[in-house]
Structures
1.
Amino acid sequence: MKGRKTLLIALSSIAAVTAVAFLGGGAPWSDDFESYPLGPIAGQGGWEEWTGSQNVSGQVSNAQAHSGSKSLLIEGGVSGGDGGDDTVQRFSGLTTGRYLMKAWTFVPSTATGAGWFIMLNQYPQPLNWSHQVNFNADTNKVTADFQQGETDLVKGQWVPYMVDINLDTDKQHTYYNGVPFVIGQSWKDGVSGMGISNIAALDLYGGEFNSNPPGTSGMYFDDITLAVVPTIADVTFQSPGGGNAGGTIADLADLDDSVYRTFSDFTSEIQFANLTAMVVGMNTSVATPNKLCVTIKAKINQSVGGFLRVAFRDWNTGEFVDVGPVFQTTTDFQFFHVENVPAGNFVRASDGRIEMRVRSYVNLPITEATFFT
């Protein structure tokens, strides 16, 4: 009897990019920095210096802008100075529900050092951190502190940064330049630990001249929003085919005015090298998608290796059609991406339904062979 191989899919996301400019989701707070005079922002628009600090205000600048003519410049501390910019926006009453924090970031091509994007669940006292990511111009990496994930930094252009926060499930997912690099992290225990279900503050921090990594020579933020994320569609889960699969699907929502995402966790046990599959179905009747994207994080529990293939159901024929390449799984988690598949017949006209299949199979080695002549 051959051994049982287990394929663990920690995340499967399906995104339907639409041509609609706005699909809903209120913004409890936003700032584009256009209404402020050039200079320190502290004391305006709810912005303040870090509790107990002085002379650490970020500067409204016209050197760079994502929209309009102004943005917020955050700089690190210099030797003998008062410390790096440490500029805070407080929030209140955000203890349940799901939110998207989105900011546009700009790191100059000549920048050095690192700046931070920080969110806290308690502020000012006691202090408890949920989210802490640095943009390091020296290593060209965007890194979630405390070894929670990283991705490549882009210099010299405006890049979107998003944190998807679900207080009801205690989960946060972080994206930079569209790449998910922290998935399923606890919000309450994200950094400090022993936190609470609350979004208390945003902190844009420039770092210090002697910090590790050292503070930024300057980076910019613009068009920052904190939006309520409404659930807009139902998701169903199936596991046809050989093997056993089980898990949950959750959190299909409009994250940034044009993208739906759904997250799922499931384990697929492949018995005797049979194919096994998971089918994710969702209705997107709020708007008509025109592109489909998939990100899968997967590994297999044995060194024999395995493969993944993504397919969408063609509603004209009723059959699944493979899209993207064949992905090879290993014993280490990897991210696999299928990008910008034309929606076409993959979206059912009557109700906007999309069905995606993730199919897995094992590359079994030959362990015994007999040859006859």
2.
Amino acid sequence: MAAKELHQLLRALDDRNISLGRDDVEWAFESAGTKGDVQKWVQDYLSPDCLLSKEEFKFLESFNSRVAEGSSDGTVTGRPLTDLELENAITSLESSTAAIEKQCRLLESQKAALQELKARHSTSAATDEAQSQRQKKSAREKAQLEFEVNELADGLQSDLKSAAKQAETSVGSLPNVMERVLEKDDRVLDGLQKLIPRITQSSASSGNNEAEVDELCRKLSYLTMQEIRGRIDNAYRSATASTHGSQANGHAADTENKILELQAELEELTGEIEGLATMAVDGKYHHPILRELKTSQSDAEAESSRWNDYVLGTLQYLTTRAQTLDEHATHLHSHQDAINTVARTLEGVAKVEETVRERQRIQKRDSISSPSTPIARGLKPLRLVQANFAEPQDAISHVLRQLDVRSAPDLSDTEKLSRMLGETLKERESSLRELEGDTELGLATQLAETLAKADANVSDLLGAVHMHSPFGSVKLVDGNVEEGLGRLEGRTQELGEEMRRIDVDQVATQARKTQARFLQA
């Protein structure tokens, strides 16, 4: 029993394309806790009665109830309807409905054609009424167009007023902005002007320091040589004094030889004093001082280069900002001029339109006050003479003549009459389709031309309005660059404030003291 219900469940899952296999559901039939519930669920919900749709299930219930009532009453009931019979009945109903709808559409088209023919061949009163309806429709459309044009003109005027007010505000605030920017530039230039002497002094003092060091080293070498020579002279004097004492003791010849040897040695030493003193001074003072000077000079040159780069970058930034402000001012003035030009043009167009409307009202009033119809001039209207027919006419021929349909020789033959009416109907339908196509094409062409002209005018106006706006041209500088320029300006101002607080004289004095201490050491 469980295998049957398992196969029934698997077949139902496969019919509905549910991705569950035997391994996924077989455990429920094998488990003692779920086997009974699963079998009951399959019997309840996968039976043929439950696999019907809602409508089929209701029909089955009603059919079963009628069968049960018939069985209880003892009456004989017919066999149930099969699916094929139901499909045939539904198909026949659908075909009948389609035929009825087709016939209704045919009758509606015939009715519309007959009404069109009747309206075409109606009396002059109907024509006048149709013409008056068209005139009313055109008047309504004209009024609607005038209203839309006025609304568009009012919107443009309000936009122009707001744009003109904004431009005027921007132009009015431009002098104050320029004054503040120029004041900031003046402060920055003052700070740069204080830096220029410092840069030039550092470059000029380096050459003077080298010359001064060379001069001092030469003097030191000279003094050293003088000191050495003085010491040699002192030693020579002391030696000669001792030799004079020895001469007094009777050693004159030996003393004279020693003096001569000492003089020769002293002359040789005296010749080497200058080179030795120069070498000593160069090794101890001159070369280290020059190295330190070159190091300080390179540091000063690097610092001077940095200050020069800073000054050059600051001047370039100030120049670029001044050019940008000039372009912005030019743009604002041109934008204001363009807005004023467009406003004057719109005012001129509005005046012309008002003049045309006033002229039309005057012409309409004059036409009403001066009648031109024959009745208003005193002419008597014509009266139609009613014809008296001697013999009654056939109603069918009268209707055919009114509908402009050629009559058949024998009006009693309904087949020929219906065939003739069908041919006439086809001809009228083809002519109506051609007229409809021509009318739609003409209206679409006229509407497209009107809309294209209106779009061109609106695009020209919008182009003139937005020509000098931020959206009328391509910007080469984005918001990030402008923000970076603002930060650079702020840092430049802070650096200028710091430079103004620096005491240049005190720094120079301290540097000179440091150099003096270094030279003394």
